[in-house]
Amino acid sequence: MSGEFLAFIILAFIAVSGGVLLLNLTKVVHMVLALVATFISIAGIYILLSAEFLAVVQILIYSGAITIIMLFGIMLTRHDDKDEPKGGWVKKGTLFLGVAGFAAVVYLGIYNLDFPQLNQELHVNNTEQIGIALYTKYIIPFELTSIVLLVALIGAIILAKRDDKKEADE
């Protein structure tokens, strides 16, 4: 067994374990820490795939920024501390069948996927290749994405201000 394969098995186990813990833990901060472990292990898998740029972006954006935003959002909002009733075996069985069906569909979709052969080497200057593709071929979708994110940010600010006004009036 090669070292790369062993590293992949360990990182994949951490990613799946983090996802399972995320679903089963009860404290929000513990859930976020499980999510961070999943994000970091996925970044490790990107490194194994020689996609260093994606690994750094994964750590900076997801493990850092998105996780902090989620923590602030959770901690700054009011939520009831009521415990939800636990589902019975029917609910758990249905959930398991749904997840198993989704996994089967994804597996069959990936198994039958045929990638075209590329003329360029992927492991040489991959960050430069991403930059060139992003700012030449995909510049319009890139800019549209930034506009959508800006509109979402402005909408969130307006909604937050509206809630502040309602609380002040009460």
What is the structure about, briefly put?
The chain has 170 residues and is mainly α. It has helices at residues 3-24, 28-48, 52-76, 89-111, 126-136, 139-169.
Molecular structure report:
There is one protein chain. This protein is mostly helical and 170 residues long. It has a domain of 78 residues: NADH-ubiquinone/plastoquinone oxidoreductase chain 6, subunit NuoJ (Four Helix Bundle (Hemerythrin (Met), subunit A)), CATH 1.20.120.1200. It contains six helices and no strands. The chain starts with a helix and ends with a helix. The model has no long low-confidence stretch (mean pLDDT 84).
Throw out a few tags for this protein.
extended, quinone, NAD, Four Helix Bundle (Hemerythrin (Met), subunit A), mainly alpha, 6 helices, cell membrane, 170 residues
Task: Annotate the secondary structure layout.
Layout: H1 3-24, H2 28-48, H3 52-76, H4 89-111, H5 126-136, H6 139-169
Helix pairs in contact: 1-2, 2-3
The CATH topology of the domain at 1-78 turns out to be Four Helix Bundle (Hemerythrin (Met), subunit A)
The portion of residues forming beta strands comes to under 5%
Radius of gyration: 21 Å
How much is the average pLDDT?
Answer: 84
Helix content: over 70%
Number-wise, the strands total 0
* Cα shape: extended
* CATH homologous superfamily label of the domain at 1-78: NADH-ubiquinone/plastoquinone oxidoreductase chain 6, subunit NuoJ
